[in-house]
């Protein structure tokens, strides 16, 4: 006896991947996510390859995972995939302390983020 299977929340022509515990602030990660939103997958992968942002390698891994999910789990055509959604959420924040002058302390916050990428297959109109 197990849990009942959950209904699929995405459409039949969509697949998603989630990257959790990415060590970057959500604001910085959203800059990279906005760069690939709405683009074709091959152009998004090329843009991430040549991006100078540190987190772009992790975003590229999540996008590649979404493409692999679309191909292997949902039998979608890889050539017709578009990044339909790329949104960022907060995760935990590590609190650290740095000694300051006159016996005081400075609080350092080290935030983590999570990234969700949804790819959608679109039909080529000729």
TrEMBL record:
UniProt entry keywords in alphabetical sequence: Ribonucleoprotein, Ribosomal protein, RNA-binding, rRNA-binding
Query: Which BP terms from GO are recorded?
Result: translation
Listed under subunit, the entry gives: Part of the 50S ribosomal subunit.
Q: What is the lineage of its organism?
A: Bacteria, Pseudomonadati, Pseudomonadota, Alphaproteobacteria, Hyphomicrobiales
Give the function comment from the record.
The globular domain of the protein is located near the polypeptide exit tunnel on the outside of the subunit, while an extended beta-hairpin is found that lines the wall of the exit tunnel in the center of the 70S ribosome.
Q: What is this protein called?
A: Large ribosomal subunit protein uL22
Cellular compartments per GO CC = cytosolic large ribosomal subunit
- InterPro entries reported for this sequence: Ribosomal_uL22, Ribosomal_uL22_bac/chlpt-type, Ribosomal_uL22_bac/org-type, Ribosomal_uL22_sf
Keyword match Nucleotide-binding: no
Protein family (similarity comment) = Belongs to the universal ribosomal protein uL22 family.
Gene Ontology molecular functions: rRNA binding; structural constituent of ribosome
**RNA-binding among keywords:** yes
> Can you tell which superkingdom this protein's organism belongs to?
Bacteria
């Amino acid at each position: 006896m197990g849990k009942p299977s959950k209904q699929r929340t995405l459409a039949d022509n969509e697949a998603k991947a989630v990257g959790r515990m990415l060590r970057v602030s959500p604001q910085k990660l959203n800059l990279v996510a906005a760069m690939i939103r709405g683009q074709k997958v091959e152009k998004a992968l090329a843009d991430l390859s040549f991006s100078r942002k540190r987190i772009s390698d992790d975003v590229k891994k999540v996008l590649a995972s979404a493409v692999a999910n679309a191909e292997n789990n949902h039998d979608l055509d890889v050539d017709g995939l578009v990044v339909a959604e790329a949104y960022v959420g907060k995760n935990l924040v590590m609190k650290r302390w740095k000694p300051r002058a006159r016996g005081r302390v400075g609080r350092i916050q080290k935030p983590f983020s999570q990234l969700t990428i949804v790819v959608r297959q679109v039909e080529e109109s000729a």
